[in-house]
Amino acid sequence: MSTEIRFGTDGWRALIAEDFTFENVARCSQGLADHLKVGGIASKGLVVGYDTRFLSREFAERVATVMAGNGIKAYLSEKAAPTPVVSFNVLHHQAAGAAIITASHNPANWNGFKFKPEYAGSATQELTDQLELAIAESGPVQQIPLARARYEGLIVEFDPDPPYLERISNLIDLPAIRNAGLRVSVDSMFGAGAGYIARLVAGGSTTVEEMNGYRNPAFPGMEQPEPIAHNLTALTERIKAGGASVGLALDGDADRVGVVDEHGRFVTTLEVFSLLALYLLENKGEKGALVKGVTSSSMLNRLGEQFGVDVHEMKVGFKYIGPRMSEVDALMGGEESGGFAFRGHIPERDGVLSGLYILEYMAKTGSTPSQLVQHLFDQVGSQYYNRRDVSFDPQDRTRIEELQRGIGDGGLTEVAGLRVRQTDEIDGRRLVFDDAWLIIRFSGTEPLLRLYAEAGKPELVEALIAGAAEYLGV
After folding, report:
1. Structural domain harbouring 409
2. What is the pLDDT of residues 128-180, one digit of tens each?
3. Shared-domain flag, residues 283 and 324
4. How many angstroms separate the CA atoms of 155 and 157, rounded?
């Protein structure tokens, strides 16, 4: 029986050798080839990229040979590269899209297949539905050997960096960063983003010290290459010991960023999103809507009110956020995961660009990260946040969902002493209290239940998460 290939919030992901096999990647590729042909855009070719995970290069070559077997030109990256770098090359090559072999932040024994359409952002739900159907209905896989495809010009290898680096240099004042005298520590988490920040800011008084800047598909010392606090203990300790100005971390395919301040404190992803929005609105004087995943900070709503810009709340995932950004010509979009996108670039998360904006903010203001966070709190009030990821028995999902639906309808009217004022189901179940919120949702990329909370006091955040976990029996 064939594996059912389903695309979550960002691509199809599965365990290597269990479901993520060469056979299934070839099936997925054949379905994509059929999809491009039906859409009448196959002649534009497909960009193919990959990250540093186990066998990612080989899986990418399989994608390219299937495209070639279908008469579709494949632009194959000559090296592992960040998802946003590969995505930008869709525009550069005016291609029909990109297939990227990556499981982003998932544990080391996972890999994945992301499809980026011709606009270089995440595929919409409509497109992924069409792609899933094309894969399910695809016939025998058509492919030709790699050497023959290269000889016939159906596979062309290319360096993905130059067009991307040129775009970044037009968006960021790199000389200001280079000459700011910053000491930057970067944890590349053994991923595809290794070397990019150091390369972009080299040549002045600013120095970059990089950790884990080489390929190791096992991602040792971390649960998964996700730039969140418990995976960044080595980075925080190094900053505490060495006096760095700031720490930046990139996830496995460098579409997410993590920030650690000069004291070694992890700056939450909600704070980072709000800081970046404040910088663009206040310091750079730009105007435009903000598009946020529903699990992002209420500080963004307050910034929207303060600067007179609309704030759009969306389901989690750039398959929802990216298209809305394009619809409203948004200034910025982002989500709680640490993925942020910016106008003038691509409607896609970019961890490298996000980190550079943080450095530019510091260089232009002469402020430390902790001072920037305090300035944010002075503007919109202090907010604290946490997320708890809970593994669960798949057979228990129905019970959890039933309890989730009952919230606010008599099943749960109070958490941690706070009365539920309203609820919604934009994504999962959101409970809104006075100056606090709690969200319960299932991950779209991993078998996890996620509990999120934001409030004016850190102890209240923990109490809200604990209360939800107790109610759900997880």
Report:
1. 384-472
2. 999 999 999 999 999 999 999 999 999 999 999 999 999 999 999 999 999 99
3. yes
4. 7
